Structures are given as C-alpha cells and as structure tokens.
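Page 47, continued from p. 46.
Same chain as before, 159 aa.
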Amino acid sequence: MACHGPQGNSQIPNTPSLAGQPKLFIENQLVLIREGLRDIPAMKGMMEGVSDAEIVELANYFSAQQPVAAARGTPDAASFRRGQELAARGLCGSCHLPDYSGRQQIPRLAGQHEVFLLQSLKQFRDHPGPGRDTIMAASLYGLKDNELADLAHYLAYFR
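Result:
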C-alpha cells in the first residue's frame, strides 16, 4: 500500500495503480517479478518467498478494488486528440478493450498516471525482453517519443 496506494490507487506518478487490474494480469506480473523474469528493483525483496496462494490473494484483493483516475484537471485538447487518433490507429482497444479496462492478462490503462504510462510505453518500445509482451513492442515500433507522450496523455485522461 505504501507504493501502490490506498486500495491500490497509487499516489506516486511513476508507480502503477493496481486497483481494478484484471486478476490474471496481477497474478502473472507478481509471478514474473518473484521469479526474477521481470526486474523491478523496488519489488525484488518484497516478492521473495511469497507463495502462489498469497499471490492469488493479492490479485483477488487488488482486482476487486475500484480504480480512481490519477489525472486531475483538464486534458490538453490537442494532445488528447492526437493520442486518441494513435490509440484508434494502433487498435489499442482490441486488446485492452474499448474502455481500456483490460482483460485477463492484459492490463487496465485507463486512468493510470501519465508519467507511468509514458515510462511503460517507452520501455515496451525500446527494451522488449523477458516478461514483456512482444505484441506491445511491435505495436509501438516506430512511434516517436512525442507520439508516446500523446498516447499516455490520452489514456491517463480517458473516462
């Protein structure tokens, strides 16, 4: 809760909210982190010795929480529109669902912190590897940083 926030709604811009994430997505990510296939330094020690049953309990808890959108205020209209067009062109809603709520092993993007979304998009584009979805790397291939910023802005403010 210290990092991912009360009921899994992060208050830290570069930390994802877990509230409302699909249960299977949370389970998969926690196993990848525990097994060292996904390197997240802040989580390294925390997942050591965590049993499969405990991972299932954590996933049940966080997936059942109501997500709260991180973005406040009014989005930049031009950036939002460009991000919306990129999401439509990239068919993001076909995997992440039209409301970007995610499903099964595919994460919820809607309402995440813009900083976290941008950091994640760049990582998928630039550093595909173990624990990373190759479809995402291919989907983001060739997109420029400013385009990823527009996409992150759109998803952060998506309602």
